[in-house]
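Why does residue order matter? Because the sequence determines the fold. Keep that principle in mind as you read this record.
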Amino acid sequence: MLTGTPRRCKHRDGYHHPVATVGIIGLPNVGKTTVFNALTGLQAHTAPHPFSTVEPAVGVARVPDPMLEALAALEHPEKTVHATLDLLDLPAMARPGSAGLGGRFLGRLREMEAIAVVLRSFEDEAVPADESGTNPAEQAEALLLELALADLEVFSRKAEKAVKEAAADAAKKPAAAAVAAGLELLDQGRALRSRAWSEAEEAAFHDLAPLTLKPAVWMVNVDEDDPQAQEVADAVAAVVPAGDTVVALSAHLEEEASRLDPEDRAELLEGFGLGEGALARVVRATYDALHLITFYTAGSKEVHARTIRRGAHAREAAGKVHSDMERGFIRAEVCPIGEVVASGGWDAVKAAGKVKVEGRDYVMADGDVMLVRFSV
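Structure:
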């Protein structure tokens, strides 16, 4: 979602497994892996010295969804399945011109659909800040420059080739012009997403997989009791491209909370005034950035939250459940999940006449519960 759709993987079993992939980056000792652990519930190794993460770690973040849990409590399914995000915790990046892992893993980052950047604002004598500092706005500027330089290198190579291709084929002149415009922006140290691009221009960038065109969520790792957390986040928002989301969180506290039962976790987060916690906010920001929505399927065997691009039609949504449903689609019965829960479940809301029958071109709404009628 460079501007929209999650990866769609079709397996031999006929089921589609839509996945939104997010790469986590940051300078050394900013708490990047702690954030990864908090989001995934894993226990990847952390250490108070630079470049302790030397290989990427892969994890899955389960999307918090109170409405899914409420629906499951009514339907009593054998299994409840949350939507997920795939997360890749990459080794720390080095500042431009410094030693370190630097761009070694930028190729992996180019495969991601979105980027989550961890910035350090906390003070801790046990965790050196020599490589990162504790000014998150300054770190954001350094990382923006690093990513722009990485894209600049790629676009510089492409521009020369694009000019030659355009000279031989006039139809390729618009693509060459788009690459030249991108190159000019990157040469100024600016992210590609700092301006709007047409669909044709983005198509010209597709094979380059530019890092600075990917949606970004900035996570400011603050002290647990930092009274200026919001002010710090606002300072970061002032230096990153317009439209990027900035979230303040305490990674250490969030990691502790992730290891608790849901009820104890909610109590801990509420006690510290953190509300729903970082995961929910990061997931919401990522969904918004990637233009994703959630729809649900419900039955006695399974209540399932599923991810789909905003604007998708009912037939495409059916294909996210199973390819047979997409091929043999007849109609869909849909109702907002809030209405289903308030009515007491699917059978009750249907009996009340609140379920609508829609055709293949119905545009799915965020939070729809859908029952697909199909023929094999």
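The chain has 14 helices and twelve strands.
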